[in-house]
Amino acid sequence: MLMVENIDLYYGASHALRGVSLQAAKGRVTCVLGRNGVGKTSLMRAIMGQQAVRSGVVQWEGADITTLPAYERARAGIGFVPQGREIFARLTVRENLETGFAPLKRAERTIPAEIYELFPVLADMHSRRGGDLSGGQQQQLAIARALVTRPRLLILDEPTEGIQPSIIKDIGRVIRLLAENKIKAFGEMAIVLVEQYFDFAKELADDYAVMDRGEVILAGATAQMVEADVRKHLTV
Ligand SMILES: Nc1ncnc2c1ncn2[C@@H]1O[C@H](COP(=O)(O)OP(=O)(O)OP(=O)(O)O)[C@@H](O)[C@H]1O
Questions:
Q1: Does the keyword Transport apply (predicted)?
Q2: Considering the domain 2-232 in this protein, what is its CATH number?
């Protein structure tokens, strides 16, 4: 279980997160929704340890990780698919996947065969450079690279941004399979999905949180979500 409790985050004098709380349980997809610039990425960076919080607590699997450096959070099973993918353009697909070995013990440094079953295109493109892949293929590679770390919490920051519909569908299918613990190589996972694309979020999310101006203003189970209330905070 991930528990973010009442965190505040600043960039200099700018107050980017204001008393934000969020929970994400294993076996469930938790969607964080909101317009551009409301603080979604800042919240993910706070969970990952890439940005320090001024106050509040981040708890993962019962331990307080608020001040743990990012590499130790990766070792604690937190995997991240960053916005914009951040694929290494000059490394091959295989080498990009191997960068996911960093938090693993030596004996665990393998690429699970299931990764190529989830994303067959990566097997076909194995020796190609990251920079030669399409945006959608790079997004699949970014998800695969996070999976190589064997995460128990998988954070995806806007994985559908700029991606064609057929690949969005594939990515959605993979997220569902992972959440339902259907892939042998991986254990039970909590998934946090940042999205602006409401329909994709609604289809996948078990739980949701809507952010506006640095705060979580609505949250709950998707089954009880009032769509009109959420949409009000998504469209300009
Ligand atoms: N490194 C930074 N330094 C200063 N201000 C920042 C920094 N990163 C983000 N901000 C500001 O913090 C606020 C929240 O940004 P954040 O990227 O978390 O929002 P977001 O909801 O993820 O938006 P997007 O959908 O565009 O990624 C914005 O006003 C942004 O300009």
A1: yes
A2: 3.40.50.300
